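Bug #77: duplicate submission created two jobs. Keeping one. Sequence:
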Amino acid sequence: MKPLRIVITAENVSQRMSGETVLPLYYFRRLRARGVRVWVVCHARCRDELRELFPSDDFHQFSFVEDTWLQALLYWIGCLFPYRIQDLIFGQLVHLLTQLKARAIVKRLINEHAIDLVFEPAPITPKGLSFMYGLGVPVVIGPMCGGLEFPPAFRYMDAPLTRLSISVSRALAQVGNWLIPGKLQADALIVGNDLTATALPRGYRGKVYRVEESGVDLSLCKPIESGALSPGQAVRFVFFARFVDWKGVQFLVEAFKQVAPKTHAVLELIGDGLLFDTTKAQVEALGLEDRVNFHGRLSLEDSIALIRRCHVYVVPSLRECGGNAILEVMAMGLPLIATNWAGPGLFVNSSCGILVEPSSRQGFIDGLAIAMLRLAESPELRRRLGAGSAKRVTENYFDWESKTNRILEIMYETLHNREQGAIAVGDLEHSGT
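Kept job's structure:
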């Protein structure tokens, strides 16, 4: 049987950029290790990094979309607006122009290399438009994650203009998917959770599969071998994320105000962002300067090294779709405290952490504090939940090896379904002549 030939298309393919941009690289490397012939189409901004990452033979598998003056203008205008408006409106417009050019490159590769299937793992938003249709080969999109809102008690965190813009953009996205029917005509749509499945555009025809979009490399993230703390030694809680309102760092600091007087605990904060200076001021106002350490933005290696010296990982995010960092920490064998909402609420369960209900602002803060006190005061609970984390991360296609195997199964099933459909149509046409 000849090797499977696929094209991976994604706007950004990078280890340096944050979030979903690394996903195509994971699939590229692991699919090739399984004997799949893979070509990649992405934006030219990734060219220099990919040239450094791959030797000349592998680098030839990448094709690049060059920017236009219109894309640059839209990006500049988008930077004048709040992040969610920038992402949902201007970001999508720039992405559409890139996809239009990427589609032409994908069609050329299909003709030149007898491609079997097109795979679009990013962007992960379920309502985002895709130009990958009418290509003559099956299209698989995902795993996707998104369509999330703040918990009801925290909807106030989106300004009225932002809420209006989101509503309008989602309505326009449905119209856009009718006009540009990549998602509607895709053979397979992979979603990370039920919330994302309900956010898919109406009228899709492809088979829907469930696979989490986030993943962890178990060969790189190993369980920590840590001994018992000596009497009086501080339990170290760690937060690792951008300092933006929906990541919840402001609620975590307020909760820690209840924990500090009752324990020797320390709070380690890794990251930067819009709320960095505000959070520093909050810590000073609460008198916690000697118990809260700000590390700023660290390299991934330094961040992991610091996390490995901590004892509990805290995820107070209120609108988190997934999160590679959560899975990496679970693979290290750390217990977690997480918001029982969206991604963290799906990743973390009672075997590996404590989930806090975002029922109200004060209720959430109190819940974080109670969870921190429980773990600060119980070495046995930390040990048990840490062992549960290391086990949990090997389930549900959380690790990249099992996830890639599952994606490959979906690809072969999609090809089989397309072939059977073609045979069925051929038989029907023959019987009618």
